[in-house]
Amino acid sequence: MKINIKRFSSENPNSNSIEQFDVKHNNTILESLQEIKNRQDHTLSFRCGCKTGVCGSCAIRVNGVEKLACKTHLNEGDLIEPIKNSEVIKDLVVDLSHEEKFLKNTQAFLHKNSEEIINSNDEKQIDRQSNCILCQNCFSSCPVYEVNKEFLGPYALTRALRYVDDKKEADKGSIIASIQDNGVWDCTLCGNCTLVCPQFIDPKTDIMNLRMKSVQNGYEDKSLQAFGGFDNSFDTGFDPSGGFNPNGF
């Protein structure tokens, strides 16, 4: 079975090319990459960790779609590339220094413990967002980064919602304030992030929820600016929750 891999080295920018290798059948892409590195080309560079789809370190693009190499089976002629919106260091390894930056900017952490009594059902509200493995698939698939490198992005905003919804957090206002600029209002709601998440998280819906919570906390609904503001005298059919209501209500 043949696999095509995009090769690149920051030390030698002219080395950008696509190389083809023959590998065993019925392998995952990660197993094929390891086979190539061990038996054919020891210079091939890629990241991997748990090999069970939990650590997120083996994120790549397969035929233009973000996947985890350890959870994706190889098909004949697949093209393997590094994830987008990150500087490529070598082959499939990219610079992930943005990860810590965006998480810090959203202040997505516990600021102040609430005195409210928490029960087990309350924890279920944040279970889905807590499952984010920071694989960067959503970051790679997001078109906003092509025009705004400071956009907080899907995984950071999902993490923000996780703490906004956490009843142990007594200072939700600080988190909501941190996501107004280059945050929830910059998202196009295209849904690419939701489609490629290996944990079945829905960042698009998370961002829509954060928009609603922002408005409830007194922030301007900037999504209305694209429609020239909101005028109660004229029903445009626009739904402030993030979609378009053709019925006008």
Keywords:
9 helices; alpha+beta; Fumarate Reductase Iron-sulfur Protein, Chain B, domain 2; five-stranded mixed β-sheet; disordered C terminus; 249 residues; two-stranded antiparallel sheet; Ubiquitin-like (UB roll)
Structural overview:
The chain has helices at 29-39, 98-105, 120-124, 127-130, 137-141, 154-164, 172-178, 192-196, 203-216; strands at residues 2-9, 12-22, 59-62, 65-68, 78-81, 88-90, 93-94, 238-239, 243-244. It is of the alpha+beta class and 249 residues long. The model is unreliable at 230-238 and 244-249 (pLDDT under 50). The protein has 2 domains: 2-94, Beta-grasp domain (Ubiquitin-like (UB roll)); 98-239, Alpha-helical ferredoxin (Fumarate Reductase Iron-sulfur Protein, Chain B, domain 2, Orthogonal Bundle), CATH 1.10.1060. It contains 9 helices and 9 strands. The chain has a 5-stranded mixed β-sheet. It has a two-stranded antiparallel ribbon with strand order 6-7. A hairpin with a 2-residue loop joins strand 6 (88-90) and strand 7 (93-94).
